[in-house]
Amino acid sequence: MGAGVSTYVGTGEETNGGSVPNSSKPSLGDIPESCTSSILINLDPPEICKLARLNRAFSQASSADFIWESKLPSNYKFLVTKILGDEQHLQNLSKKQIYAKLCQPNRFDGSTKEVWLDKYSGKVCLSISSKALKITGIDDRRYWTYIPSEESRFSSIAFLQKMWWVEVVGELEFEFPAGKYSLFFRLQLGKASKRLGRRICNVDQVHGWDIKPVRFQLSTSNGQHSLSECYLNGPGDWVHYHAGDFMIQNPGNRPIKIVFSMAQIDCTHTKGGLCIDCVLIIPK
């Protein structure tokens, strides 16, 4: 490719009659915009943005609505309405601006949930804060407390001190594009903090999680179900525990309701030292 480009952008070409002026030689800027757009539409968004810096022709072509509409998920109008609260914003924004806006972390439902697009694939990702979950005993400070954390997207996490019955339930009604999605609980055993600039994790209150496994469940309004069990481990590290997968085949611009939970309700022993950050829903 380098040799081909150099024949167009060289300093001059010798002919029998002398050198040809640069102005008469073809260059990348002479490629028709329709051809440039045909190239860009087959690239990932970050690659499109890189080529847009190449010259004016690529810059102009890279802003074409039909290019960015092909990168947006099928539910982008729903997302704009969910985030901005008014579909009228669609009329004031180009498709490129909409894509850029949706790639940012966008809060909704009282800032307890966050949605964004993967900037490479344009696929939808979701995060649900611990404050959006129904946690048994959360209002009793003898059992649970919310503590600030720089390691959370939402700046706070739920910390369990000691309890017999641990149950966490969440639900979400959302419009997803077609595809397969996985749901994870982001959990940690132990309470992390910083001392002299270094991360430390206090695991003194961690107990009871090695006796019986935690049960994770997921169900959807269109009849999908998932059930799994595993022991919580890895004290001091955030771990993503897989609760299940679900499939969206024919979205048809219809929201789907998802109910998910984690529980360890064996009352023969207490459990403690658990941090709950959030629930993640990401493309499979």
UniProtKB/TrEMBL annotation:
Residues 1-29 are annotated as: Disordered. PROSITE patterns: FBOX. It comes from the Eukaryota. InterPro entries: F-box-like_dom_sf, F-box_dom, PP2-like. SUPFAM superfamilies: F-box domain. Residues 13-26 have a biased composition (Polar residues). Pfam families: PP2. Residues 25-71 form the F-box domain. This is F-box protein PP2-A13. It comes from Quillaja saponaria. The lineage of its organism: Eukaryota, Viridiplantae, Streptophyta, Embryophyta, Tracheophyta.
